[in-house]
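Input for the complex:
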Amino acid sequence: MEILSGKWKFHILGTLMEGGKIRFMDLLREVDGIAAKMLSKELQDMEMNHLISRTVLNTKPITVEYEVTEYGRTLEPIIDEIAKWGEAYRNAMFKKQHDQTSEI
Amino acid sequence: MEILSGKWKFHILGTLMEGGKIRFMDLLREVDGIAAKMLSKELQDMEMNHLISRTVLNTKPITVEYEVTEYGRTLEPIIDEIAKWGEAYRNAMFKKQHDQTSEI
DNA sequence: ATCATTAGTTTCCAATAGGAAAGTAGTTTC
DNA sequence: GAAACTACTTTCCTATTGGAAACTAATGAT
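Predicted:
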């Protein structure tokens, strides 16, 4: 699943799946810790893969709404399965202080 | 799922799940395109996360067998769900020539 | 002695990922 | 006219990822 690669796509997609249509700035606030550049890049990425749709609204300051597409919804079983796993095995935390992505 | 991050973990885990116990050199041959360094690193990573086990056998030239642990097996629903998705939506390839993560 | 096979490790390097901060541009409010 | 809000983009920089190739070390075969 290279289409879900990167640090943020799962979180963004999860947020959009439970929240429906969400504007850029609201995503920036809801996805904790993400920078504008990353959010923009990840959204473009997922839009290119047709997982989400982008709609520009002609409001006072323009706003842009993002939404999971029908195609993106087909990923829900996977996202759900992962969420389920997370809940079930979160307690079995086998990570240690010198975590695997770094050196000894 | 940072524990399944990287280019190879899914492939290695999938191979081990269907193949049972597999030796290093056999994995190197079965996981197409992987370099020894990467295989070694990813196996260590997954061993640290208790997804697989490593067993040294005292054969003529020593051999090392890798196997999915009981804990690693708990990821099977996720792997299966992803495989299912891949089969169902492989045809809907929305990736274009100037693709963001790979080449053509 | 040299080669092959086992399971790695080491080195060197290029490409990608990711973050902080500032900038752009249009509109509206004070 | 300055500040604020929208949605980004740009720049600069560091860290991580990943690959190719060579190397180590033990053992066995030719």
